[in-house]
Amino acid sequence: MGSKNKLKRFKENETFANVFQPTREELIGGDYALKGKWREAIFKNENPVVLELGCGKGEYTVGLAKRYPDKNFIGVDIKGARFWRGAKTALEDEMSNAMFVRTQIELIEYVFEDNEVDEIWITFPDPQIKYKRTKHRLTNLQFLERYKKVLKPNGLMHLKTDSEFMHGYTLGLLHGLGYEVLYANHNVYKLEGSPEEVTEIQTFYEKQYLENDKAITYIRFKIN
Length: 224
Hints:
The chain is 38% helix and 21% strand. The chain is of the alpha/beta class. It has two domains: 1-109, Vaccinia Virus protein VP39 (Rossmann fold); 114-224, 3-Layer(aba) Sandwich (Rossmann fold), CATH 3.40.50. The relative contact order is 0.14.
């Protein structure tokens, strides 16, 4: 994407009512006004709050929001020029249950209050295979502790990935920590009984993976 196009999208994001861009200072300073108030201040209901972390273009956030109008969805990513597409689609379709936050995922506990979130989706994250990159792996112990903080007791976690490494790493970590794995499938499009929300919502890159016959994996688990 050209720099002009990026700048245009950044400017548009600033005008979108469904995009929130708190500064790092605002979050770490503990002054973020929406922390603990997403339901009442933004969604104006008491429905469950579901996050998609590393939401990319926002396709999954929008897809889930269309599928579940009785839930509130928030896509989180630091790359605003990417989720611009999802935010724009949600506005064009007049969706009141799909929002986007531009921030780093490691700051998640500054954006949401303890126990404010009902579910978290992580879709196609970078597996960060190199050892020196493990601190950025979105299902490592440090990130799981952050998610545990914002999730309600018995809140659900979902991991959908094309990386067998990420799938195996996460399963091994969950079993080692004694967390409850509710469902695990190393090829959701080939095995029967896969959840519809996992197979019916597909990202742009996921469609490419499927064309190349790459297996898509999925885990549903609890960390409380």
